[in-house]
Design brief:
mainly alpha
């Protein structure tokens, strides 16, 4: 999971700040869709096997900065907020 979070955060860093929250939601939606597809049909979706890392690897990513860098932490917070909102919306 830490690798998934890092790859997704770096994908968010590759776009301007106003585009990060929508991209975080897109990454999560693609991962969820691919996960359902893979479980149902027993094969990978074009989005991957249903991991956040697979969704992030399909996009440009910023180089790995220091984990305590301000922009990295802000992008990580955007991602974690999207994950929390998705879990709340799903009811768990």
């Amino acid at each position: 999971m830490p690798g998934d979070l890092d790859l997704a955060t770096r994908a968010l860093l590759a776009v301007p700040p106003p585009e990060r929250a929508p991209l975080a939601e897109t990454l999560l939606a693609e991962a969820a869709l691919a996960d359902r597809y893979s479980k149902r049909l027993g094969r990978r979706h074009t989005f991957g096997a249903g991991t956040l890392a697979d969704a992030a690897l399909r996009r440009p990513r910023a180089p790995g900065p220091a984990l305590d860098a301000g922009p990295y932490l802000a992008a990580l917070q955007t991602l974690l907020t999207a994950i929390a909102a998705r879990r709340t919306h799903r009811g768990g």
